[in-house]
Write a structure and sequence with these properties.
The chain has 15 helices and 13 strands. The chain is an alpha/beta fold. The chain has two domains: about 200 residues, 3-Layer(aba) Sandwich (Rossmann fold); about 130 residues, Glycogen Phosphorylase B (Rossmann fold, 3-Layer(aba) Sandwich), CATH 3.40.50.2000. α1 crosses α7, α3 crosses α4 and α4 packs parallel to α5. The structure holds uridine-diphosphate-N-acetylglucosamine (UD1).
Length: about 375
């Protein structure tokens, strides 16, 4: 029997990636435990996803909460070390690129526990982004690396990761989307009828600097004159706006709403004329749904969303945002295709690889001496 797999989730984007892997391993009776670090803790940033994604309740919640990067990462490490020592897993499975991912990978590596990284190999090549540091470090110390697309394999090979450690399995987050698309739920945003643009912004590079946030708020006001804007607002962004006394000039045209559940946000994405975001995962969901996406970043760790999908990087240039938004609203939005292996079966492929490790069918040479 395969030894215990200990999954780690911590922040909102982890949940939709872990859910399909846990389901697929459960179907194969693989022993597993779920640890929630508590990096995200609000009902709307965490609990609602467990219910809607039908995930098991976490076996352990480390309840670390918010803090500076050092405080949050260190606190997760201290608390997670005890859990690993107590339960002695054969594998620690980490997801994506948040602080919880790198913190728990580091703990596992130091305790000599094997690490599997889901969504490995993505690179923005921008080390000013905390997530890029998390990605590079996690991949470096992982034993098995599950990539969503070919660029991930190429990046890892280039960094000296052995080919037998890399498995291109496709996109786990899209597994969840495929499974739940039919259950997407209209959140019935008051006053929302007809066309709208969906906005999400939470990255420090966009929201932490008051001058930049003021520019963005003004740009949303201008956009709101042409199309209604729906903006489910991340707690970090809400706090920064409040600190700077910023709010939309016309709240009926730029509608701020609470962070949405998975099913409600899916509905909002599916029906939007376009999406304006700085998120990583939303670029991919928009590509799958065929909805034009403008990404307010200078680079992306998910280039396939631009080369194959509907995504366009507009950077921090508000004139570009306006120009591209106009193009879409004039009927010239970017179309795209769904990348290979984004087919709803990535979790199954991961489970097959893990089970194959025990039966010897997975080609993997343990490099530990
Ligand atoms: C984190 C991830 C980011 C991901 C995002 C998705 C890192 C480095 N960043 O960013 O990659 O895109 O999650 O949402 O791990 N807060 C609450 N309630 C919560 C969680 C956070 O109010 O449940 C507020 C707190 O003020 C906190 C701030 O949001 O200080 C930032 O939270 P944090 O987890 O540090 O980073 P995110 O910006 O959410």
């Amino acid at each position: 029997m395969l030894s215990l797999i200990l999954h780690v989730v911590g922040a909102r984007p982890n949940f939709m990636k872990a859910a399909p892997v846990i389901r697929a391993l459960h179907a194969r009776s693989v022993p597993q435990m779920l640890v929630h670090t508590g990096q995200h803790y609000d009902e709307r940033m965490s609990d609602i996803f467990f219910r809607q994604l039908e995930m098991p309740r976490p076996d352990v919640n480390l309840e670390v909460g918010s803090g500076s990067h050092a405080v949050q990462t260190a606190e997760i490490m201290v608390r997670f070390e005890r859990v690993v020592q107590e339960h002695q897993p054969g594998w620690v499975m980490v997801y994506g690129d948040v602080n919880s991912t790198v913190a728990c990978a580091l703990v596992a590596a130091k305790l000599g526990v094997r690490i599997a990284h889901v969504e490995a190999g993505l690179r923005s090549f921008d080390r000013s982004m905390p997530e890029e540091i998390n990605r590079v470090l996690t991949d470096r110390i992982s034993d098995l690396l599950f990539t969503p697309s070919e660029d991930g394999d190429a990046n890892l090979l280039h960094e000296g990761i052995r080919a037998d450690q890399i498995h291109r399995v496709g996109n786990c987050m899209i597994d969840t989307l495929v499974r739940l698309l039919g259950k997407a739920q209209d959140p019935r945003v008051p006053g929302l009828d007809g066309a709208y643009a969906l906005v999400t912004l939470h990255r420090p590079s966009n929201v932490d600097e008051p001058h930049r946030l003021a520019e963005i708020t003004a740009a949303l006001d201008r956009l709101g004159q042409r199309i209604r804007v729906v903006f489910p607002i991340h707690p970090r962004t809400r706090k920064r706006m409040a600190d700077s006394g910023l709010q939309p000039a016309n709240p009926a045209r730029v509608v701020l709403i609470e962070p949405q559940g998975y099913l409600e946000f899916l509905w909002l994405q599916q029906h939007a004329r376009f999406i304006l975001t700085d998120s990583g995962g939303i670029q991919e969901e928009a590509t799958y749904l065929g909805v034009p996406c403008l990404t307010m970043r200078e680079n992306t760790e998910r280039p396939i969303t631009c080369t194959t999908g509907t995504n366009i990087l507009v950077g921090q240039d508000m004139d570009r945002v306006r120009e591209q938004a106009d193009r879409i609203l004039d009927g010239h939005g970017k179309t795209g295709r769904i990348p290979p292996l984004w087919d709803g079966k990535a979790g199954e492929r991961i489970a097959e690889v893990m089970v194959g490790l025990e039966s010897g069918t997975t080609d993997y040479a343990d490099g530990r001496g």
